[in-house]
Every structure is written in structure tokens, then in C-alpha cells.
Task: inverse folding
């Protein structure tokens, strides 16, 4: 499997232009990229993504054309009871998106996902390579 990050955080050509952008207020969508860890385990690959403050129902994971995409959205809670002025806001709100090219060694139909304590865990099983057997063919 060659998990190739799309929108790689360590792509220095776009690092400074993409990483420190504030969410757009102009109505144009800007996606935040959750931090991920990728591990190769014996029979599967494991991807863990940090999604703090996001509800399980707001997470969407799908596979299409060999690309695994996770999407989520965190909306800022507005408290109408307090008309207070925000002095500082460091917690990001908005849409999160991260995609990975799976390659041919992943069994796409068996990918599983779980979510606990703000961490999404995806397990992508490796494709089981079929052993080619010698088979006798009877001659009639």
C-alpha cells in the first residue's frame, strides 16, 4: 500500500500559503486538515485522526476511485443569552477534510472506522494475495 497524502502538510511549496490561513469569512470554503498518524500493522494499515469537539454524527468517511476521504465539520456554538464580545478565539471551527490514495494493496470493501475521545481510527485491511496453486487438469 502506498498511502499518499493529498494536501500533504509537509509539502513546502504550499506550506506557508496553506497552513496558516484563517477560515474564510467571504463564503468561500476553506478546509482544515486534521492531524493524522498512519501505521502499518501486520495485516492492516491504521489511520488515526484528531477531531476534537466533533460529534460522531458529523463525521463522514468514504472511498471512491481508490481515494479514502474523511470529512467533518465543527460549528461554533453561539450563546444567544450572552451578547459578549469574543476577545480571543484559538479553537478552529469549520470543515475538516483529509484524503489518502490507498493503492492496490488495500481491501477497500473491508475498511472499518471507530470514534472515541475525539480520535477517529480507520483500519484498512491489506489485500490478501492469492497463492497461485498448481492444479491438475484431467484429460478426457
Result:
Amino acid at each position: 500500500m502506498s498511502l499518499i497524502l493529498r494536501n500533504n502538510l509537509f509539502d513546502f511549496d504550499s506550506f506557508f500559503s496553506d497552513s496558516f490561513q484563517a477560515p474564510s469569512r467571504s463564503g468561500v470554503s476553506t478546509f482544515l486538515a486534521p492531524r493524522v498518524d498512519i501505521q502499518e500493522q501486520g495485516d492492516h494499515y491504521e489511520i488515526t485522526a484528531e477531531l476534537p469537539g466533533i460529534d460522531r454524527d458529523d463525521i463522514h468517511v468514504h472511498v471512491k476511485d481508490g481515494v479514502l476521504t474523511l470529512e467533518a465539520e465543527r460549528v461554533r456554538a453561539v450563546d444567544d443569552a450572552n451578547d459578549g464580545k469574543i476577545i480571543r478565539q484559538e479553537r478552529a471551527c469549520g470543515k475538516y477534510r483529509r484524503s489518502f490514495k490507498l493503492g492496490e494493496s488495500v481491501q477497500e470493501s473491508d475498511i472499518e472506522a471507530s470514534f472515541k475521545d475525539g480520535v477517529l481510527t480507520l483500519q484498512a485491511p491489506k489485500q490478501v494475495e492469492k497463492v497461485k496453486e498448481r492444479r491438475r487438469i484431467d484429460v478426457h
